[in-house]
Design a protein that fits this description.
The chain is an all-alpha fold. It has one domain.
Length: 65
């Protein structure tokens, strides 16, 4: 996992402990669900469509983004 230690956009260092990994996975699943809900609010199925519409000025994102 050392190849990931210096990746600049990671939220945390790589998790190698099984108990901590389970917690990290649980957080990632909750975050994924939150993002899907945000996409659904603005009627998009995926981030690609959302980004394309945003770049074209077709909508303004909800204030809670």
């Amino acid at each position: 996992m050392s190849q990931y230690e210096r990746v600049p956009h990671l939220l945390t260092q790589p998790v190698v402990d099984p108990k901590k990994a389970a917690n990290a996975l649980q957080w990632a699943c909750r975050e994924m669900d939150r993002r899907y809900e945000l996409l659904a609010e603005v009627k998009f199925r995926d981030i690609t469509g959302y980004n394309a519409a945003y770049d074209k000025g077709q909508f303004k994102p909800p204030k809670r983004h």
